[in-house]
Amino acid sequence: MSIQTSMPIISMRHVDKHFGQLHVLRDINLDVAKGEVVVLIGPSGSGKSTLCRTINRLETIDSGEILFEGKPLPQEGKELAAMRAEIGMVFQSFNLFAHKTILDNVTMGPVEVLHRPRKEAEAEAMELLDRVGVAAQAHKVPAQLSGGQQQRVAIARSLAMHPKAMLFDEPTSALDPEMINEVLDVMVELAGMGMTMVVVTHEMNFARRVSNRVVFMADGQIVEQNTPDEFFDHPKSERAKDFLDSIKGH
Amino acid sequence: MGVSEVFAEFGDVYLQSLLSTWLMTAVCFAGGLALGILATVLRVSPIKPLRVAGDIYVQLFRNIPTVSLLVIFVYALPYLGLMLSYRTCLLACVILVVSSFASENFMSGINAIGAGQIEAARSIGLSFVQIIRLIVIPQSLRTTVLPMTNLLIATLLTTAMGSQVPLTPPELTGMVNYVNSRSVAGISAFVLSAICYAGTSVVIGFLGNKLDEKVRIVR
User: Fold this and answer.
1) What is the pTM of this model?
2) What is the distance in angstroms between the Cα of B186 and the nearest Cα belonging to chain A?
């Protein structure tokens, strides 16, 4: 695929990480091209969430290096904050600011980090909220919204920063089944618009339909990666076969 | 002398002492909150020596009886060349003690925020200072209204420590000595002060509950 050959926007080289005795990331090498949608799948405890969180340095690494647009992630401080502002992140548990209205959740980044005028930021936030279908809730607080609505607000909050790439850490795992699709729909639309996305998910249909590449992890290692059709139809490794067997057939 | 007679004779001086108590309470509480926020920011900062300094500060002033602290301020500081007025000593002691308890309240408020919101704030590029200012302080203030109401009442009652040093005008407890050294009011003088303390506390408690209902964060 031509998309794989352009200069990677995210690049991980020989990344290792331990949680105490536990070796959670083992020699991870992963490039993500601009506009690419990469889905990380694997059994729980395989390190996929940790991998996702190292990309904007919410988790530090023990060795190796991570590059964003060719530059290594800086140490904690102003520079890192500036880089984080360019990488959107959507969490499993939404993590909206509980004391702020939906609108203020979306405008906080643009106003405080990008120093945009409040009026302008609010106008854009309303457009974004409209796009993800929660404009009518703009003046409520997060606890008044359903999980699916909260997650869509969280996506709008990330988009308001005009990110160059977005990380999704199990965005639908905490949702009731009937709310999963409303969040996935927004993500499908984003992918269609050319957003670079790294998605940790258990939604295999989403992975198959939307991703450019599936990365399968187990025990902290990337075991295999391939296009979604190849991976799901002809998995090569035993681990991947076992995993795919274990999740199908219900 | 009955309570009404004490009131008839000393009513205006009582009023002065009540105002004095209210003023000291307000000053000590405001100062305590400000210092408490400062200590708490130290305690959650990413720099370890600052965290340790914040913890030591809180442990120190939370665990010394206010009266001992006052004795140290009044009798020991002059040896170090620091001569403060009695009122300044009293205010400083109460502020230090109140700030350490305020910091403990703030810490429990911060623990209620949850790591997720902080991570979300970091991932949109907010700095440590911005996260403290925009997320941590507003949320912990709003979740700690009830414990802070208790602390305000405790501050009011702690200003009674002012009876241990000569103050003009005296505060409510010192006022009892003032009255009893000029008349034979006996227990009545205490009752009048007690009514003032209790009345003020009830009003504070009521307003605190109202405020809590208004600003409490729905989770």
Assistant:
1) 0.85
2) 52
Exposure string over A227-246, b if 16+ CB within 10 A, otherwise e? ebeebbeebeeebbeebbee
- Terminal Cα-to-Cα distance of chain B (whole angstroms): 55
Q: With CA atoms as reference, report the closest residue to B22 among B169, B166, B145.
A: B169
Q: What is the CATH number of the domain that holds B61?
A: 1.10.3720.10
ipTM: 0.92
- pLDDT of A215: 97
Chain B residues with CB inside 8 Å of A98's CB? 113, 117, 139, 217-219
User: Residue B62: pLDDT above 60?
Assistant: yes
**Interchain CB distance below 8 Å, B116 and A112:** no
Instruction: Tokens for B72, please give them.
Output: 């140290």
Q: Do A112 and B218 touch (CB under 8 A)?
A: no
End-to-end, the C-alpha distance of chain A in Å comes to 34
Mean pLDDT of chain A: 94
- Interface contact flag, B120 A89, Cβ < 8 Å: yes
Count structural domains, chain B: 1
State the Cα–Cα distance between residues B195 and B3, nearest whole angstrom: 10
pLDDT of residue B46: 86
pLDDT at residue number A2? 45
Domain range for B37 is 3-215
- b/e code A30-69 from CB counts within 10 Å (16+ = b): bbbbbbbbbbbbbeeebbbbbbbbbbbbbbebeebebebe
A79 and B CB contact within 8 Å:
no
